[in-house]
# Entry
Amino acid sequence: MRTIRLGALLILCAFGLCTFGLTFAKDKDKEKEKDFTSGAAENKVVSITATPYLERDEVTQAAGADLGPYVTAMRITVQPKAGTLRIDRDDFTLLTFKTGEHTTPLSPSELGSRTDITVKAVQVGPDGPLADHHTPLWSVPGMGNTVQSGNGKAAPTTTTVVNDKKDTAYKKKDPLVELLKQKVLPEKETDQPVSGLLLFNLDKQKLKDLELIYKTSDGPLKVRFK
# Structure
């Protein structure tokens, strides 16, 4: 009897392990086949659908590169309904009701080449007010330069700050920029459906807090997500 009971117990355990294995495998398949929520809106001139990617790994998979933790992506399909339509990424705005922040899409070049603050140590000429001082110069490319003196007054300098992004070394094609140009929603005139990504400088948000706004000649379209 004990042998029979032990055998039955082993059979039950084996059956339980098989069931667990099948359930685990199904769960893994569900993860791979994640169903992303889409939203849609339309008017007389155009219809759009939008699929948001909020998690960093989702954005990375959609864009083909890791863009960091502060990028939200939307896959957009634009369908003209009344002839030729001019598609411009700047006509889209992403709004978060959580903070009231709203942002327009980033261009590939903004994500691939970011301008940094330039810091240089300069000495004002012999006739200048700071002739005997070595004072750091903080400057932003494209803006005027100032030196902070010891008494808190700003003294002008003739030092030229070179924007390194314009140097020869930076004229080479940025691989990330070239990749993103193939991924983003193209800007053009068309009467055919067009699809692509919009990339926003916005950290992870809850889906229910987001609204995508698209400016059209027939008024704004607003897409909410549930």
Remarks:
- The mean pLDDT is 74.
